[in-house]
Amino acid sequence: MNDRAPVEPKAVINESGLEVKPLYTRADVDASGGEAMIGAPGEYPFTRGIHRLMYRKQPWTMRQYAGFGNPRDTNQRFKYLIANGQTGLNVAFDLPTQIGLDSDDPLAEGEIGRVGMSIDTLRDFELAFDGIDLDKITVSMTINGAAAIAIAMYLAMAEKRGYDVTKLRGTAQNDILKEFIGRGTWIFPVEPSIRLVGDTIEYCARHAPKYSPVSVCGYHIRESGATPAQEMAYAFCIARAYADEAIRRGLHVDEFAGRLSYNFNIFGNLFEQVAKFRAGRSLWAKIMKEEYKAESPGSMWLRMIAAGGGGGLTFEQPELNIVRGAYYALISALSGTQTMALCSYDEAYTIPTEYSARISLRTMQILIEEMGLTETVDPLGGSWYVETMTNQMRAKMEEIIAETDAEGGIVKLISEGAIQAKVSAQAYRMQQNIESGAFPKVGVNCYRNEHEDEHPVEFHPYNEDDARAQIASLAQVRAERDADAVARALARVGADARDGANVMPAIVDAVKAYASVGEITRELVKVFGRYQEPIRF
Amino acid sequence: MSSPTPAMPARRIRVLLAKPGLDGHDQGAKIVARAMMDAGFEVIYTGLRQTPEAVARIALDEDVDVVALSSMAGSHLPFCRKLKPLLEAGGLTDKLWMIGGNLPAQDHGALRELGFAGIFPTGSRLEAVVSYIRENAP
């Protein structure tokens, strides 16, 4: 018999601040709120998934983030990914496009086509999607500040090619509030930015009802330093701000809520992430049903894309990112996401090469074809640990939402820079924990290689000629288009912005006349002004 | 209570931390800024989307000892090529020029030739950045 005093195991606290016990039993599930909040897949509150059969009916959509150079380059990458089994497109735009600058703007020099494809006019959308059947493959666009223009161009391009836009599916990220927290591709101040999001929701609800005009993005909030619970709670606060804006315009919640979607991050503890998604689904359903009085189940569904996880990747030993990516995909599958966009192993360095993008696609295909991840719905359901953590994560998220509301609401807190300061302080603490070794990171603070500068990464090349070709192409469009029609259309964009009208119809007309992203943005800036960021630490 | 007046209070190291170009990923810059402040440096952070002209002007106006850039989106070389003559024209050649962020090893030589002596790619430790400034700031 061992007569030594029993050793208490060291306390384990997850990133969201919840204690993890060495063992869970049914008593823990009961103490955390019981089974009442779990339900069945496809039934309120959708903890176990928004559909009854989930992947058994149809696997998740594989939608790798892609785009670089000019629209012709990106068109080729799209076709390569589709040929390799990708089932959706997720478009990356370059920084000038994202912040409403034309390729010939002096500020765009050196940035054209670098982190995504460059778009100046409708002509570029026509080139980028040439030969791609928009009925067979849905397109998601990662753009926020200039999202209203990108949506208008996408719809106009589809219409010109003969698609019925009332049936056209697709998604724009169009989540400007998160841009003020992380990523920084804002253009206008906070209030007019929300108005623009409202314009797109209202326009799509009436003209393109199958199109998803907003994908609320907890992803970047987490990348900026938020915990998993904060990521989801802040995303819900932001979604409520957009929903309030849409309702203020007279829309009924069931007219637009079913088209709101989400983008979440995946790196970190597997069980905490799975619990985060299960908890998030039930909390969003509750918010929509109880707070917004939604009646349609579709309005209560947390439809999402997950599996990015860029913040979890490391510069050290980049080949380990292939392994991390595989686990991220596994977490996403166990979480019941609708769509995956898996980060490629070289993304701590460069935009993905064809080779690394293919490895990411194959990673997801291995889960589907070999690992049995699509055969049974919510395979972790019923685990005492996961169910307890799910209930606790939901309570934690509700606590963060209540705290945010009590402090004046998400819009006020973002305007003041308060959320930014909070997540940035957390990012600093995390970096300190990584450097001290308190938060283990393989290859970074433990199991390091002796020669850390030997990185087997092939760089995606940047081609200056593509940038020059893009500027020349813009000049050609300007020379060929009807200048009077452009001037009239731009004048209407400005007038509608000033009058408080929905600017989307005017923007759609302007893009059809081949007005450029920069020209339309300038009209809006004249009325809305530009955002000045509060710098707070 | 009286305390002896120091003959000459030591001047704190002044660092300009700038986000060049259009890249909006500034969490790394903010983390480094906090580490520098904790180390006792004075940090002037520019916020996003600075032009080379603005960086050079702020460096001059603020009389900084260190000009540090944070770049994540791959446009570091074109930016530094434009910034170098502006810093020289402002008489800032004796200051410490540094850059951090997503900087592939193949570009380090070119950055050093442009005068950016301190290069801290993603994954660098905060204490490495801080001690480099302590040892090399003019």
TrEMBL record, chain A:
Pfam families: MM_CoA_mutase. Transmembrane segments: none annotated. Residues 15-530 form the Methylmalonyl-CoA mutase alpha/beta chain catalytic domain. GO terms for molecular function: cobalamin binding; methylmalonyl-CoA mutase activity. The keyword Isomerase applies. Gene3D superfamilies: Methylmalonyl-CoA mutase. Keywords: Isomerase. Its EC number is 5.4.99.2. InterPro entries: Cbl-dep_enz_cat (IPR016176), MeMalonylCoA_mutase_a/b_cat (IPR006099), MMCoA_mutase_a_cat (IPR006098). This is Heterodimeric methylmalonyl-CoA mutase, large subunit IaaH. It comes from Thauera chlorobenzoica. The lineage of its organism: Bacteria, Pseudomonadati, Pseudomonadota, Betaproteobacteria, Rhodocyclales.
Automatic annotation (TrEMBL), chain B:
Its cofactor is adenosylcob(III)alamin. Signal peptide: none annotated. GO terms for molecular function: cobalamin binding; metal ion binding; methylmalonyl-CoA mutase activity. It is an enzyme of class 5 (isomerase). Its EC number is 5.4.99.2. CDD domains: MM_CoA_mut_B12_BD (cd02071). Keywords: Cobalamin, Cobalt, Isomerase, Metal-binding. Gene3D superfamilies: Cobalamin-binding domain (3.40.50.280). The keyword Metal-binding applies. This is B12 binding domain of heterodimeric CoA mutase IaaG.
